[in-house]
Amino acid sequence: MRWLLTLVFTTLVSMPLAFAEPLKLTTLHWPPYVEADGEGPNTDVVRDIFSLAGVQIEVEVFPWNRAIKLAEEDTGWIGVFPEYYSAEIDAEKGGSRCLFSKSFGVSPVGFLKPENGDFNWSDHDDLTQYVIGVVRGYVNETRLDAMIADQKVTAELSENDEQNILKLAFRRMDAIVIDKLVFDYLKSKSVAVARVADSLEFHPKLLVEHGLRICFENSARGRQARDLFDAQIANRPNRRPEPVPEDGMGTPAVSSDG
């Protein structure tokens, strides 16, 4: 009994000490989800969920590939968000990069195309006849990404969503992959995008609805932070169900973006 009490006491004491300092998370400027200063709806949700466990967070914006690298390799950062689920980088599914949280939001991803353009699709095989614009380093959707990697679909790379849209407007590609809310936001905020927006339209068939997640470092500390975050998701008011991951793995009853 004395041994058991000692174990319980040690556990209760040591767990809070692990997060006595704010947890540091990297992110990107990805409006409307995350603004240039690191604030925004996604950051608010992540902060609120951690606050339910009495944990504070610090968030800093980087270019996306650097945000990923820091979260993976620099122990000063415990994770990166918002990220779409990918089995290839899921350390619990044979990958090595990170430990995924449950979804805290959703991202509707589809194709933006020129108005009255020839692009149309009903299944992935239709995409082989087109040049598809994607943002470098983004996860798009499992099957499409595999087809691009296998050179079954021709991809045109851009550095960000705004560049991707402008290249589409100048007919550098037949369609681009983009989150619908991101396009709607850029239409209202970017002068350059606003100038070409009326010549473009969002295809009615979505490619995927991703869950938005935190990708925690693959370590004991990262796992502790992930488990703490996941445990509080169900306690958040106005929580919406998590979309089923596109490859069928994960916890569908609690995504997505990324």
TrEMBL record:
Superkingdom of the source species: Bacteria
Assigned keywords, A-Z: Signal
Region (Disordered): 234-258
Residues in the signal sequence: 1-20
Identification of the protein by name: Amino acid ABC transporter substrate-binding protein, PAAT family
Organism: Roseibium denhamense
Taxonomic classification: Bacteria, Pseudomonadati, Pseudomonadota, Alphaproteobacteria, Hyphomicrobiales
